Amino acid sequence: MKSTYKKMLAAGAVMALAGAAHAQSAGSNIVSLGWFRVMPNSSADPLTIDSFAGQPVNQVRPNTGAKIESADTLGLAYTHYFTDNISSEFVVGIPPNHDVTGTGSFAQYGKLGKVRQWSPAVLVKYHFFDAKTKFRPYVGIGVNYTWFTGETITNQNFVNREFGPGARMTASAAPSWNPVFNIGANYAINDHWLVGLSVSYVPLSTRATFTTQTGPVTIQSHTKIKIDPVVTFLNVGYRF
User: What start and end residues bound the annotated signal peptide (predicted)?
Assistant: First the structure.
């Protein structure tokens, strides 16, 4: 009896994992909506003053820096299965607004500014197990294009103390193409609905350029900011 009972439990477990759902098979199209958590592992090179009143300076200010803080946003993904195991995915999120805080000697100022990050991506994924299996882990690789808007220095106390009373600073950040490395898993609830969780890593950096106006004098400066975010995506998908 005990042996029979154990066999029944094992069979039940197999049925639970490999039910009749075909939501992840060749030809399937899935739209997913969910929550992105963007967690930069960021740091910045010391600020370099490039020019002062049009004259080259190239002066590095040691022990200065900044980092990009984490942010949350809504994400949307479209997935197409070419085979039972291979799919492509286009994923985009509402651009998150990141706070930028000082490090080193700039840490005393706290938040220096903010920036909005746009990072749509295209991925190719390999899904493990049979198409009928409800729980399917996967690995993926792809590419994204990142650009920035709304680069704003909001801390006037920082600008006044570092560049002079009444100074005004504007900022811009360079766009870039970047690889995306992805792992995750989906669970098919039935033939149409599934839930998923993925983790992505994007080796990303940008050159931030600053123009500071102090009276009639223009100061140009820059820094390289490493962002390297880890991005989680918890989502609900619908197959059609």
Answer: 1-23
Does residue 13 sit within a domain? no
Element (H, E) at 3: helix 2-17
CATH for 145: 2.40.160.20
Is the separation of the CB atoms in 236 and 193 below 8 Å? yes
Domain range for 192 is 22-239
> What are the helix (H) ranges across 68-220?
156-163
Threshold 0.90, pTM exceeds: no
**For the chain, how many structural domains are there in total?**
1
Q: Average model confidence (pLDDT) for the chain? A: 92
Tokens of 98: 């990141």
* Opening angle at CA 11, ends 130 and 26, nearest 5: 15
Strands 97-104 and 71-81: unpaired
Q: Is residue 5 one of the residues assigned to a domain?
A: no
- Reported as a single tens digit per residue, the pLDDT across 33-67 is 999 999 999 999 999 999 999 999 999 999 999 99
CA 102 – CA 236 distance, rounded (Å): 37
Task: Give a yes or no: residue 10 inside a domain.
Answer: no
pLDDT-based confidence at residue 2 (cuts at 50, 70, 90): very low
Question: What distance in Å separates the CA atoms of residue 149 and residue 177, rounded to the nearest whole number?
Answer: 16
Given this model, what pLDDT does residue 22 score? 60
For 161-172, write each residue's pLDDT tens digit.
999 999 999 999
